[in-house]
Design goal:
Chain B: Keywords: Cell membrane, Membrane, Transmembrane, Transmembrane helix, Transport. The complex is a heterodimer. By secondary structure, chain A is an alpha/beta fold. Chain A is 38% helix and 25% strand. In chain B, helix 2 packs parallel to helix 5. The chains are: A alpha/beta, B mainly alpha. Chains A and B meet through helix 3, strand 6 and helix 4 of A and helix 1 and helix 4 of B.
């Protein structure tokens, strides 16, 4: 019983098929409260399907799925009260300004001080200068920041981020990583999907790898590393990656 | 715990406020639904009007009902466009993962269509008044006109909803508007159907817009509406029921 209270998400034997296509063939995992959980998998492995089921957007065929103690099939309203979703594509209203987007979500969450909530998030996410511009003028990174800020309206304790850095440039990606780390340190549970191994390594306490509709391995990074042969000591010359070069040059320019 | 149903009207009004901003910030929408019908009214009254024999002494009086319907028909493509984009860009997904009533998002769009048409029709009537439109109709007749226009708007809006919700591309979503644009043109909106050749006349007299135009025209000129009003109402209510049923089904399937 005590164990259950410490769990934000519990999934047992989750199955979902579209006609002949078996997307999920018995998925099991648990996400501890306050942790960052990364679901790792290639395109089409079923990551988004899992996110949609967990966020009540999609009904599953069989299995037990509990989010914050609410069964997603029986108490979807309870789930929706306690979570927020940042979908695969930044779902911001492009015709509204950043501020209006945040106020919109605050009103839909029935908060009394919608303006104040929006102002705070604008400051926190570094959108002050752009707050009164239409979201259609935002860069990819800014759009994603606004998107995540919208998910934090109403202080959800569990945040779903479906491929939050796909399509972002390296700088914007690091910005998103910073945000996720801040969320984690403020005690929010983060459920994240990604196709980038590095992202999972950087952010996650728990990693699960989804392949062909089942979880093939899961555990902490240290546990996953144990599954591989012990490390050998080798001397190699480390060449900088293009990404490191890019970031070093851009960083220098910004300092100047 | 708060229930999502008790907030339905509040959520819907937030949705309405959002889409109304979309309408007011789209020059294209304002031009198509308000300025273009006004331009048509000017064109028909001051350029073509002299050659048109309608049997009334004041052509603006004859023309206004049709122009109002054209304005409403022109707005329909935008409703499906806005619905399609919300679907496509994951805005609906965001709303549906939140504790708000599922249909609030859809009804927000329907309400926006109604409210924005009320505004554009009001502007058109004002311009018509300046152009010499006069009506002897009483309050009750005006109320009936408003009711019929609202039903016509709802009928077209639900058709637009089906298109917007089920389309695979923007082009597909707005394609629904084109056949609808034609209905007022091939009706008694501009000239009496009696002047049309046989097959065109048969089509014009048996499609919904003519009976709606005739009903509004009779109401505004204080003439007896006869059977036309029942034909008009039957068309509107019939289309609303069928289109609402299918739109609801598509919506439930998609979300």
């Amino acid at each position: 019983m005590e164990n259950m209270q410490n769990q934000a998400i519990r999934v047992e034997g989750l199955r979902k098929s579209y006609k002949q296509l078996h997307v999920l063939r018995g998925v099991d995992f648990e996400v501890a409260k306050g942790s960052v959980f990364a679901l790792l998998g290639s395109n089409g492995s079923g990551k988004t399907t899992i996110v949609k089921i967990l966020t009540t957007l999609l009904k599953h065929d069989s299995g037990n799925v509990t989010v914050n103690g609410f069964d997603v099939a029986l108490k979807p309203d309870g789930v929706r009260q306690s979570i927020s979703l940042t979908g695969q594509f930044a779902a911001v209203d492009e015709i509204l300004t950043g501020r209006e987007n945040l106020i919109l979500i605050a009103r839909l969450r029935h908060l009394r001080n919608a303006r104040q909530v929006a102002d705070d998030l604008i400051k926190r996410f570094g959108l002050t200068d752009a707050a009164d511009r239409r979201a259609s003028t935002y860069s990819g990174g800014m759009r994603r920041r606004l998107d995540i800020a919208m998910s934090l309206v109403g202080n959800s304790q569990l945040v779903f981020l479906d491929e939050p850095t796909t399509g972002l440039d390296p700088e914007a990606r690091i910005e998103v990583w910073k945000i996720v780390k801040e969320l984690a340190s403020s005690g929010i549970t983060v459920f994240l999907t990604t196709q980038y191994l590095e992202e999972a390594e950087q952010l996650a306490d728990q990693i699960a790898i989804l392949d062909k509709g089942t979880i093939i391995v899961s555990g902490t990074l240290a546990e996953l590393k144990k599954l591989f042969p012990p490390a050998k000591v080798e001397y190699i010359e480390k060449q900088p990656t293009l990404e490191e070069i890019f970031l070093a040059i851009v960083g220098k320019n910004q300092e100047n | 715990m708060e229930t999502t149903q008790s907030y339905f009207f509040m959520d819907m009004s937030v949705m309405l406020g959002r889409s109304m901003r979309h309408v007011f910030r789209s020059m294209d929408t304002i031009i198509t639904v308000t300025l273009m019908p006004i331009a048509m009214m000017l064109l028909f009254v001051y350029v073509l009007g002299g050659a048109i024999q309608t049997g009334t002494d004041n052509y603006v009086n004859y023309l206004l009902p049709g122009i109002m319907l054209i304005a409403i028909a022109n707005s329909i493509g935008y409703t499906s466009y806005r619905l399609f984009l919300d679907m496509e860009r994951g805005i609906f997904e965001r709303f549906h993962s939140m504790p708000i009533s599922r249909s609030a998002a859809l009804w927000g769009h329907v309400l926006t269509s109604l409210v924005s048409n009320v505004i554009s029709v009001a502007v058109i009537i004002l311009v018509a008044l300046v152009m010499g439109f006069r009506s002897t109709a009483g309050g009750l007749s005006w109320l009936a006109v408003a009711g019929i226009l609202a039903l016509f708007t709802l009928a077209l809006t639900w058709i637009a909803a089906i298109a917007g919700l089920s389309a695979k591309s923007v082009d597909g979503a707005v394609a629904v508007a084109y056949p609808i644009h034609f209905l007022p043109l091939i009706s008694s909106a501009f000239v009496p159907t009696a002047s049309m050749p046989g097959p065109v006349r048969a089509f014009a007299e048996n499609q919904p817009v003519t009976s709606i135009v005739e009903t509004i025209r009779s109401l505004l000129s204080n003439q007896p509406v006869g059977n036309e009003i029942w034909v008009a109402l039957a068309w509107c209510v019939g289309i609303i029921l069928v289109a609402y049923f299918f739109a609801k089904r598509v919506y439930q399937k998609r979300v």
